[in-house]
Amino acid sequence: MAAKPWRLTRQAEVSLVEIARWTYDTFGPRQARAYEDDLVARCHAIAEGGAPSQSCRRVIDPDLPEELRFTRAGQHLVVFVEDRDQVIVVDFLHGRSDLPRRLRALADPSAEGEG
Question: Can you give the pLDDT at residue 114?
């Protein structure tokens, strides 16, 4: 199976920068680069069909869209949507965050203020 093209949403780009900045400040530049590389490698694996993933609806909240999926990468979940032609990485969420609220906000940006 050929890899699909993939891209980050603006939110995913912001999250990736924030993760790298926090890791740099906490653990130093080498660890920040290694963790960022791991997250990007997971995106490539998703696009190649080689990353096990689960439905956010089935695992986290039954009211989420069926197409919203996640896979783990270190302490984060890579949240994405995949169609026939591409993979869109929606966000990177820390595993300890309020996942139902954060995922509802991704699925419906007007829900961000709720909860």
Answer: 38
